[in-house]
Design goal:
CATH class of the largest domain: Alpha Beta
Distance between the termini: 36 Å
Shape: elongated
Helix content: 25-40%
CATH superfamily of the largest domain: Creatinase/methionine aminopeptidase superfamily
Order of helices and strands: HEHEEHEHEHEHHHEEEEHHEEEEEEEE
CATH architecture of the largest domain: Alpha-Beta Complex
Strand content: 15-25%
């Protein structure tokens, strides 16, 4: 089991970042932000659950119903409320403990929390100034520590084996859904859970977010498999492509262009580069080959506790990347009515450039 740093270290880093950004209060809902900071991941329903952090205090607004389960994961104080009481009094006590009973506080709100939770906080404060977590919690989460690297690496090595097993299971007449089952069974056998899986035969591959179904594999058919598992709290994500039978020249050309785009994006992935620089490196290759209109999405997304998180590798992002950032590089070309090719790696930025998590080659897989 991967050992993660104590919550106290992440809380200290957050407070340092709060001081740098002149943030008075951070309020997190029952989300991956809360999980990352405290290890607490309560069931999210209509009962307000919040972790509130100031420089002097950190504590939870906690429904009594959830308290026993949450206490296993944290020593931070709880401000309880029962269903027959409502949360207002407990929230007022928590905010007072945080020193938040003064006007004009700058508050960072968890952008993933329920709107009624966020409005409850804003209504309880006097003329607050608010923003979201982009320069505090999200920024800290985007730089992975060694324990997170080890967890993500383990998930990817397991994913490699599952996708290899999936390609080996290809045979004429098998359905996309049956190949999903092969992958899912491999995950379960090795202690992981299915995070997502898209198996695409032929024309299905032209839809970047295809839902695998009853389509059967026939002779001379393109195959795209994009899948990920969750192991020890962290996910994997990888796409590999191949051909069942003999690929034609168009498929081979498209595959080669996408591989060149991956290589260009990898070369551009260095600390100090902007996210848009990496997107441009991949997009320029595909556009120069005449397929620019068929690259339908951004080049990548961050990966951590969430399968999609900061940083996003997109043309409209000037975010400067730093060591420890983890993100996907996944250019694709999608030819409607024919096939799609997407090759995806998850990488971590090191001082010298991008390190790939997967050990599985990107070569065209022929069956």
């Amino acid at each position: 089991m991967t050992k993660f740093p104590p919550a106290e270290i992440r809380l200290s880093n957050l407070r340092e970042r709060m001081a740098q950004t002149e943030t008075d209060l951070v309020v997190l809902g029952p989300s991956s932000h809360m999980d990352w900071l405290s290890g607490v991941h309560p069931h999210g329903d209509e009962r307000p659950v919040m972790l509130v952090v100031s420089q002097k205090y950190a504590g939870f607004l906690m429904p009594a119903l959830n308290a026993a389960a949450a206490r296993i994961s944290t020593d931070l104080p709880f401000h309880f409320w029962r269903d027959d009481q409502g949360p207002d009094e407990a929230l007022a006590e928590l905010l007072a403990a945080c020193g938040a009973n003064v006007p004009n506080l700058t508050v960072v709100l968890d952008e993933t929390m329920r709107a009624d939770f966020a409005l409850r906080i804003l209504d309880a404060l006097e003329t607050p100034k608010r923003r979201f977590t982009g320069d505090t919690v999200s920024l800290l989460r985007a730089s992975k520590d060694q324990s997170e690297f080890e967890a993500i690496k383990a998930a990817h090595l397991l994913n490699d084996a599952a996708i290899k097993a999936a390609f080996e299971a290809l045979k004429e007449g098998v359905t996309e859904g049956e190949i999903v089952a092969v992958i899912n069974e491999h995950y379960k056998k090795h202690g992981a859970a299915l995070e997502f899986c898209s198996v695409c035969f032929g024309e299905s591959g032209a839809f970047p977010h295809h839902y695998s179904g009853s389509t059967k594999l026939g002779a001379n058919t393109a195959v795209l498999i994009d899948s990920g598992c969750r192991l020890n709290g962290y996910p994997s994500d990888m796409t590999r492509c191949g051909f069942f039978g003999t690929p034609d020249e168009t498929y081979k050309e498209v595959f080669d262009v996408v591989e060149q785009a991956v290589q260009a994006a990898l070369e551009a992935s260095k600390p100090g580069a902007r996210a848009s620089d990496i997107d441009k490196a991949a997009r320029d290759v595909i556009s120069a080959a005449g397929y620019g209109d068929y690259f339908l999405h951004r080049t990548g997304h961050g990966l951590g506790i969430d399968i999609h998180e900061e940083p996003y590798i997109a043309a409209n992002s000037d975010r400067v990347l730093v060591e420890g950032n983890v993100f996907s590089i996944e250019p694709g070309i999608y030819l409607n009515g024919k096939f799609g090719v997407r090759l995806e790696e998850i990488v971590i930025l090191r001082e010298t450039g991008a390190e790939i998590f997967s050990d599985m080659p990107r070569d065209m897989i022929l069956r």
